[in-house]
Amino acid sequence: MTDSTQLELLRKIPAVDQLLLLPGISSWVERTSRGFVVSEIQKVLEETRDAIRSGDESAVSQISSGSLERLLNDRLHACLQPALRAAINATGVILHTNLGRAPLSAAAQQSLSALSGQYTNLEYDLNSGGRSHRDKLVEPLLKEILGCEAATAVNNNAAAVFLILNTLACGREVIVSRGELVEIGGSFRIPDILMRSGAILREVGTTNKTRVQDYQTAVNPNTALLLRVHPSNYRMHGFTQRPDLPDLIELAKSLGIPLVEDIGSGCLRDLKPYGISDEPIAQESLAAGVDLVCFSCDKLLGGPQAGIIAGASRWIDLIRKNPLMRTYRVEKLIYGALEATLASYRTGRAITEIPVLRMISMSREEIRARARAFVRRARKRLSLGVRLELIEGDSVVGGGSCPESSLPTFLIALVSDKHKANTLESRLRLQDPPVIPRVEEDRTLIDLRTVSPVQESALLDALCNALSL
Ligand SMILES: *Cc1c(COP(=O)(O)O)cnc(C)c1O
To answer: Environment class of residue 437 by beta-carbon count within 10 Å: exposed (0-12), middle (13-18) or buried (19+)?
Structure first.
């Protein structure tokens, strides 16, 4: 491109005001604001000028009003596309941390929409007209469900562990088994949290074996508490030993030192009938005599992101008075969603009402029936060159829980003559709503366990789009 051609092209670029008059653009001004649209026009025009100056031939076709209008339209659409979007989780990983862990129950969703645009009695006592504490919103339910003296909510379980340690053990020793110094999801490591809380880590036992005796020997006047951590995301096999909870409780009681258990997932129900056998149940730990338990609300519990600390009121009262409590304070909408989720446990309807538990309890026959019906619908719409078959497989709980429990399922395997599995995976991911499948051995797999029946039509549309391109 010669200099004079470049000058010629630069002169041909329409002015901002000219573009604002185009119907496709002026409608954006009405829907948003002139300032916003003008700033996007200026960006696009600047990019066009840069392209011309750098001799980019493709810029030539871009400078007509028509193509600038189309380009701007796409840009403005993209600007308004939210970064956080609803997605279809077809991976069969129920608690997928990257996909936001637990989807909320219908009641929790209703609570969010009922409360979010309104004032609430968050910290207002409707009976006395005086001030109240936000914890009062969920503490009665937690006390009923867990059978504990007191309970408080914080932003997540990491905050719960931190606050417990900071309140009860700052400057003092915390005894932890070497087999329980776990890392959960990269940024949460028990030794690091412990150090930041101001507590001093006193490791006991070995990686594979820790006995009650090891705790006993390590106790000294500076011991603040015994910490037991559920090794959520891994299991040890072979020559291993971990004290039985009752023995540890007995030791803690005899020494007058609190025993704190980070149970991780917030399992509030026996899930053994569904194949999940190694998750500690909060009520059982508390009933056995653990002084404080803490757990996440968006893992097996199936609620919004929060952390619960429950147990003896003498410790909970101290934790509530910790000035750092304020930095982990739970937001009003979360209280609403949490209360609605907990209500399902209280009324004995958790398995049917809470999506995470419903997915866990779904039988493979139920999934097979849904998958068969889905495949029949899909075959009617999909083009030649695409094969769908049902294969046996496993779903997993995920989210750093139950690493060894797998839930038998039926997977829909997609094989396309045109697209490799990875291409298909990326096409599915770019649909609206995005679909996240599993890829194994050059097959794209769909597990309906984590897809709700109401999402099936959208899933089918996404599949057709992705396969037809
Ligand atoms: C998941 C987990 C945590 C962290 O909980 P978040 O709610 O993600 O902060 C802490 N401890 C254990 C044992 C866990 O499993």
So the answer is: buried
294-307: b (≥16 Cβ within 10 Å) or e: bbbbbbbbbbbbbb
pLDDT reading at 353 higher than 70:
yes
Q: Is residue 101 part of a domain?
A: no
Between the CA of 26 and the centroid of ligand 1 the distance, in Å, is 50
Nearest CA to ligand 1 atom 11: 264
Are residues 348 and 278 both part of a single domain? Answer: yes
Q: Looking at residue 372, which CATH number applies to its domain? A: 3.90.1150.180
Closest ligand 1 atom, CA of 262?
Answer: 13
Indicate the residue among 311, 334, 353 that finishes a domain.
353
* 297 and 425 share one domain: no
- Residue span of the structural domain in which 413 resides: 88-96+359-468
Judged by average pLDDT, the poorest of 62-76, 179-193, 253-267, 347-361 is 179-193
Ligand 1 mean position to 71 CA, how many Å?
Answer: 45
The domain tally of the chain equals: 3
Q: For the residues 317-324, what does the mean pLDDT come to? A: 97
Cα(366) to centroid(ligand 1), Å: 31
Residues 182 and 122 in one domain: yes
164 & 246 share domain:
yes
Enumerate residues lining ligand 1, CB below 6 A.
156-158, 161, 184, 188, 229-230, 232, 262, 264-265, 296, 307, 400
Contacts of 108 (CB under 8 A, 6+ apart): 303, 304, 336, 337, 338, 340, 341
Percent of the chain scored above 90 by pLDDT? 85
